[in-house]
Design a protein that fits this description.
Number of domains: 6
Number of strands: 8
Strand content: 5-15%
Number of helices: 28
Distance between the termini: 181 Å
Radius of gyration: 48 Å
Helix content: 55-70%
Strand order of the largest sheet: 3-4-5
Structural class: mainly alpha
Largest sheet: 3 strands, antiparallel
């Protein structure tokens, strides 16, 4: 009986279900027909209104800073929540100057910008620091320039820099991850290990959630120089372990290319050394990175921090090797400023392993490899001299050490050195030091280089107008007239700045200046007429020889117009000075003048020096004393220096002589 009841109930349920299905299908068909009767616009409006009325959004976020996953919750409720945007950028009234996008590697990229772009950048930076953020309208170069600008202005207050970079990344998202990466490097150098760990965790979180706009190879060397150096994939991967070095030395393309070539060669040799020891570069770097992670950072092996540290410190090893290579190229190029290659590792074991397994081998390889580095070309030399203003001293020392008494070649070399230093603000010092050096070898060359010193000194920011020392001046000028002539040339040059005129004038400072004597023939005839009687009387006396107790005068007629008179002294003890008595010349001065007379008025300086030694006096002292004594009569210098000789103008000698 019970079984029959159960069967009956089942049958009833089946009929009920079938009936409901028919009605549902019929209802659906009806509804479809009803909807088709409405226009498409009405259907669209009803759907939009339905969504607006029924869907409300509330956003709540997790406050935990230690969580590595995004625990944000989106609750769909009937409550209204307004989302406020932080990126409230303001429009620049006259429009942002367009700047074609390219990779920005340092703040110095601003130097290649137009005047309009530079002007806008200054406005953009000023607004940023005042808390106002301009819409760059896609011109992200300005944001990246500001990124490097902020890094350059970092003065150990890491909290300010971190705040600035975070704000920059918030309003200009393209810079966010790059800013964090550079900030981590700054913190590592300064030893902020806890902050490094914190930023690395935040960076991983950011990368996991917002990495769609982040190109990690943006500033990597491999990506930048793949085409330029025709790199293969392995070489690109190796160089992409390094960021582009944003320093002035590597900003010179020739320099960075030579550093890269040296680095690639060194890594190749380093791999060979490891292989000869039965290991490889990856194993050795991993071993040292493991010690650092456990001993220096104190990370638990296998933890997330440990794994991240292994990757980052391994890249740091390559970066440190690159710095050693750059320093080797800098030294080869005479660039004295070196990069700091010291590490921030404090654990002794970690430091030992790093230095013994990596650094020691690098330093051993560099001396042999540096010889393959190409010498700087002219354009590079100009840039290097502008960066290190004292670099010219290396070349100058080379020129002075190898000087072989060829003053012309020396002057030409100094002029060429000056051309390479055309961007050097201290260029004038090259010519000043060269003038001092060559003064003891060649006077004219010294004066030429001094004029060139003044030429560059006048064009400098500060006109120093340095004078040669008194000792050098005494060697250059033997007479007051020479000094006065040179001073006049200098004064005129400072006034008119005519270089060619001054250079031509200094060459003539040491030329012998002969005074022109003009004869007034009318006056001569008048004198002849006045003294005709005296002449006749004298002729009468001279017709015969004359002799007294002191002298014998003999005359001999050479022709009708000329007669030779010879006076012979009988008593040598009564010998008098053959020069004008008003000169009051002493015996040494008379002797040296007689020496000139015997040598046809020109004597080697060495002979004068020997004469002075025999007399127990100094050569220059005797020459200057004679010149000073005779100056009043001649109104000029009697004894002049010409190359290796001293000379006297015969007419001057006759003028001071009583014969």
């Amino acid at each position: 009986m019970t079984a029959l009841i159960i069967i009956g109930v089942i049958i009833i349920i089946v009929f009920v279900v079938k009936g409901n299905k028919k009605r549902t299908r019929q209802d659906a068909i009806y509804s479809n027909l009803k909807i088709r009767q409405k226009s498409e616009k009405e259907i669209h409006d009803e759907l939009v209104q339905s969504l607006v009325k029924n869907i409300k959004i509330t956003v709540t976020t997790s406050n935990g800073t230690s969580s590595y996953n995004d625990d944000s919750i989106i609750d769909v409720t009937d409550q209204i929540y307004n989302i406020n945007s932080n990126n409230s950028l303001k429009k620049y009234s006259i429009g942002v100057p367009y700047w074609t996008h390219y990779y920005v590697y340092s703040y110095s990229e601003l130097l290649s910008a137009s005047a309009e772009q530079k002007k806008f950048y200054n406005i953009f930076k000023a607004n940023f620091l005042n808390g106002e953020y301009i819409d760059l309208e896609g011109n992200t170069n300005y944001a990246f320039i500001l990124l490097f600008d902020l890094l350059n202005e970092y003065d150990k207050d890491i909290s300010i820099l971190e705040s600035q970079l975070k704000i920059l990344g918030q309003y200009y998202p393209k810079t966010k991850s790059y800013g964090v990466s550079f900030l981590i490097k700054k913190l590592e150098i300064d030893g902020y290990s806890e902050d490094v760990s914190r930023l690395r965790r935040e960076d991983r979180f950011s990368y996991q959630n917002y990495n769609s706009d982040y190109d990690y190879d943006y500033w990597r060397l491999g990506s930048k120089y793949k085409s330029r150096l025709n790199l293969n994939e392995k070489e690109v991967k190796l160089l992409n372990k390094l960021y582009y070095p944003s320093n002035n030395f590597c900003r010179i393309e020739f320099c960075i290319l030579e550093v890269i070539k040296l680095y690639m060669s060194l890594i190749s040799e380093l791999k060979s050394i490891y292989e000869s020891e039965g290991t490889n570069i990856d194993k050795e770097f991993l071993f040292v990175a493991d010690v650092l992670a456990r001993k220096h950072f104190r990370y638990r092996k296998g933890s997330q921090n440990y794994n991240y540290s292994i990757v980052s410190t391994t890249n740091e090893f390559y970066s440190n090797i690159f710095k050693h290579c750059e320093n080797a190229v800098r030294e080869s190029f005479g660039h004295k400023r070196k990069l700091n290659t010291d590490t921030y590792y404090t654990n002794d074991e970690a430091k030992f392993e790093f230095e013994s397994k990596i650094v020691a081998k690098v330093l051993e390889l560099l001396p042999a490899l540096i010889s393959n580095v190409n010498a700087p070309d002219e354009e590079t030399e100009i840039e290097l001299y502008s960066q290190t203003i004292s670099r010219w001293k290396l070349k100058f020392e080379e020129l002075t050490t190898n000087y072989k008494s060829n003053q012309k070649e020396f002057v030409e070399s100094i002029i060429e050195l000056g051309k390479l230093n055309k961007k050097n603000p201290s260029i004038e010092n090259i010519f000043f030091e060269a003038s001092k050096f060559i003064a003891k070898h060649d006077k004219v060359s010294s004066l030429i280089l001094y004029i060139l010193y003044l030429h560059h000194d006048i064009k400098s920011v500060t006109f120093d107008n340095k004078k040669l020392t008194k000792t050098i001046q005494k060697g250059l000028f033997k007479t007051n007239e020479q000094i006065q002539d040179f001073e006049q040339i200098v004064n005129e040059f400072i006034s008119d700045k005519k270089l060619d005129k001054a250079l031509k004038a200094v060459v003539k400072v040491y030329e012998v200046k002969r005074k022109k004597i003009q004869l007034d023939r009318t006056t001569i005839k008048e004198v002849q007429a006045q003294h005709s009687g005296t002449v006749e009387l004298l002729n009468e006396y001279l017709r015969d020889d004359f002799e007294d107790e002191n002298d014998t005068i003999q005359n001999q007629e050479i022709n009708s117009e000329e007669i030779m008179i010879e006076i012979i002294q009988k008593n040598d003890e009564s010998h008098q000075s053959p020069f004008l008595p008003e000169l009051s010349l002493n015996q040494i001065q008379i002797s040296i003048l007689e020496l000139f007379y015997k040598n046809n008025f020109s004597i080697l300086q060495s002979e004068i020096e020997e004469f002075a030694k025999l007399k127990g006096v100094f050569k220059n002292q005797v020459i200057e004393s004679v010149n000073e004594t005779c100056y009043e009569v001649l109104d000029d210098v009697l004894i002049e220096e010409e190359d290796d000789y001293y000379s006297i103008i015969p007419e001057y000698f006759q003028k001071i002589s009583i014969k």
